[in-house]
Amino acid sequence: MIGILGSGTVGSGVVEVLKSNFADISKRIGREISIKAVLVRDITKKRKNLEDINLTDNPDDILNDGDISIIVELMGGLHPSLEYMLRAMEAGKHVITANKDVVAQFGEQLFSKAEEHDVDFMFEASVGGGIPIITPLKECLAANKISLIMGIVNGTTNYMLTKMTEDGCDYDEVLKEAQAKGYAEANPAADVEGLDAARKAAILGSIAFNTRIKLDDVSVEGITSIKAADIAYAKELGYVVKLLAIARDYGDKGVNVRVHPVFLPSSHPLSNVKDVFNAIFIRGNAIGDAMFYGRGAGALPTASAVVADIIAVARNIVSGNKAVIGCTCYNKRPLCALADTESSYYIRLWVDDEPGVLGSIATAFGKSDVSLKSVIQTRMVDDHAEIVAVTHVVQHRKVETAAELLRNLPVVVKICNIIRVEE
Amino acid sequence: MIGILGSGTVGSGVVEVLKSNFADISKRIGREISIKAVLVRDITKKRKNLEDINLTDNPDDILNDGDISIIVELMGGLHPSLEYMLRAMEAGKHVITANKDVVAQFGEQLFSKAEEHDVDFMFEASVGGGIPIITPLKECLAANKISLIMGIVNGTTNYMLTKMTEDGCDYDEVLKEAQAKGYAEANPAADVEGLDAARKAAILGSIAFNTRIKLDDVSVEGITSIKAADIAYAKELGYVVKLLAIARDYGDKGVNVRVHPVFLPSSHPLSNVKDVFNAIFIRGNAIGDAMFYGRGAGALPTASAVVADIIAVARNIVSGNKAVIGCTCYNKRPLCALADTESSYYIRLWVDDEPGVLGSIATAFGKSDVSLKSVIQTRMVDDHAEIVAVTHVVQHRKVETAAELLRNLPVVVKICNIIRVEE
User: What value of ipTM does the predicted structure carry?
Assistant: First the structure.
C-alpha cells in the first residue's frame, strides 16, 4: 500500500494515473496496488479527484502506518519533506519523490539512510518531468563513461526563448505572456535565474560522473540578460539561444557543472526542442550521442515518472528482490573551476563610432590571449556602433580578462552581453 | 562469467566496451566481470581485440561450461542462434541478445523457456542499437497506456532519405553512395524494402501493447518507390519523407503495426532525425509525447545496449534477485487490418493534359468517399500533366478503391505514388 504526501498538481496527477491505468499497472506489478492515504494541508477542502480516498492532515497517520510500504513525497520544498522521507526510511518504507530541491541538496543523506534501512529511494520525476532520464542514466547507459550532458531542463525559460526566437520580441514582453499562460510564476526568479535548472544539473552531474555534485557546486547564470538583439544575431550566425544545464568531464582537471545560456548550432538536436518541452542530450564513450525528449512538467507527465518508480518498487516487493541500484556516487572527482572551462564566446558591445575602434578592440582581445574568429560592426544604436565578436575556443578566465580590458577602454560604451557558443 | 557467441562487429564492440570501461562496470555491478570464452567461426583467424581472450569454434565449450552464467548471443540470423539460446536457458544460464530476427519471430518461445528455467532474457540492442528503448518501454513508461509508437529504426534508409532531401538526388544515385560508404549492403533488400524495420516494429508493438505481434502481422512497404519528385513535393508542402515503423492502437478495432514511408510535418521531432541516426517517438496517456534519439547501429553503440543488459543481469545475480520483468505480452489484442487504418494521403499521378481532367479525377475520389484537401496540377512531365492530390483523413480501403477507379480512367496515364501523410 502507498501513502502519498501532498495533494497538489503532481499528487492528483499520480492518483489519476494510478486510477485510470489501474488494470494494466496491476498486471505489470503482479498484484493490485492501492492508496491507503493522502496527506493534505486542509482536510476540509473539496478535491474532485480524491473523493474516494482517505485524506489526513496528520503526517503520523501515514508515516506510522504499518500497512504502508511505499511513501510518495510530492510536497516539494526542503522541509519538512526531508524529515518525512528520513522518518519513512527509518520505519522501513521505500521512498519515492519528485522533489529536485531535496535530492540536489540532501541526496547523500537520503541515500545513506535508504542503504542503512535497506529500502529503495527513487526520484525519476525530479529531472525532466516525464522523460525517463534517471533510470536510463543509472541502468541503460551503465556501460558508458559519460563525458557530457547538456539538458534543456526548464520549460518556462525554453518557452520564453522559443517565443523570443520565433516572434522577435523582447524578454519583458515574453515573460508577461508566459505568466499569463501559467508557464511562469508571479515570481519567476527560480526559473529565469536558472536555479531550477541548477538543481537538476546537480542531480544529472552526480549520476553521470558518479560523484557527489551539490547545488553549491553548480555555477548559475539565467536568461534575464538575453535581449532580442542577441537572439537575432544568433539566428544570423546559424545558432539558437537555449538555457542549458551542462555537466562536462574535463579529465584530470575534474568535472564542471553549470547552467547558462548558450548559442547552439541550429542543426544540433537540442535546437529543435521548442516551447515547454525538455530534452537531455548525452555523450558516452560507447553510445556516442543520444537524446531523451518529452514534457518536463505538468501533472500527468510528472505522474508518469512517479508511477514508474512506484511500479519498480512494487515489483521488487512482490518478487522479494532487494533494491539494486541505490547511490551511484562511488567516485570522488575534483571540481573543475568555471574559469578553467573552455568554450567559444559571443560578445556584443557598444563602442564610440570613430576610426580605429575595431583595432583597439582587437588589441584588447589579443593582449588577453583570446583569438577571434570574427569581429563585425553591424549597426548603430543610440549613436553608438554595435560590435559583435566571436572567439575561437578559449579558457573562460581569458575571456574575463579580455572583458575587463575592454570595459576600461575609453571607446567602449558597454559590454552588452557575453554568451558561450557550443559547436 | 560471460560466454559470447559471435565475434563480428558487435561481438568485438562488446569486448572493447567491457575492457575499456572495466573499472566503472565492476563498481556498478559490485563484482568484477570476465569473459570466459568467445565462439568464433574460424579459430585460426587473428583478431586484434580478442588476443587475450579464450576463443573456441565449438559451441558446447560455452553452452556446457558451468562457470558461465550469462550467454551473450551476437551471431545474428535465426538458426542456430535460437537453438543455442534455448539450450543456454535450459542449462540455467541468463541470455542476452542483439538479434532482432530471432526476437521478432521466436520471442514467445524464448520468453517461455526463460520463465520455465527462471533466467533473464534481455534484448535491448535488438531495436534502436544503442538507444535505450526496450527497458524504458517496459519499466520507465510502465505507468502509461501507449497509443502510438513511430520509429525511425533503420539507419540505411534514413541516410538515403536524408541525402535525397538535402541534395535533391534520386534513389539509385543515393543507394550507390550509401553502399560506397558502407551504410548499405551489396544486397540492400532487407533495409530498403523495410524488412529490417518490420522486425523492430514487431518487437516495439509487442511491448507497447502487451500483446504478441509477430513479423507476419506487420504490413511492410519500403522506400524503393520514392522518387526525387515526391521528396520535392513533400518539401514544398511543409513535410519531410521518413520511413517509419508505426504501432498504433485503434481501440476496439485492435492494434496495427506497419512499416511504410510517411510525409511527416517538418516541425515534428522525428523530422529532424538525420543521416544514420534513429529515434523512437512514443505517445502515452500520462507522459504525452516523448522521443528517444541516438545511433541505431555500429559496434560501440550496439555494445552500449548489450553491456547495459549484461550489467543488469549481473547485478541481479550479485544481489540474489530474481528476473523481474520477463514477458509483458499479457494481453491478447486483435489486429486492426491495414484497410481499416486511417490517414491522410498524398497521391501523385500523371494524366493527359486536356480540359476536364481535374474534374474526372475529383469525381473518382468523390465516388470512393475520399474527401480532398487539395488537388494541384503542377508541371508537365513527358507530355503528361503531373497532379498531386492530398486527402483528408480517410480509411485506407477507400483510398485503394479510389486508386482502382483512377487507374481505370482513360485520362490517367499512371499513379506514380501514394504516400501516407501524418499530422
Answer: 0.95
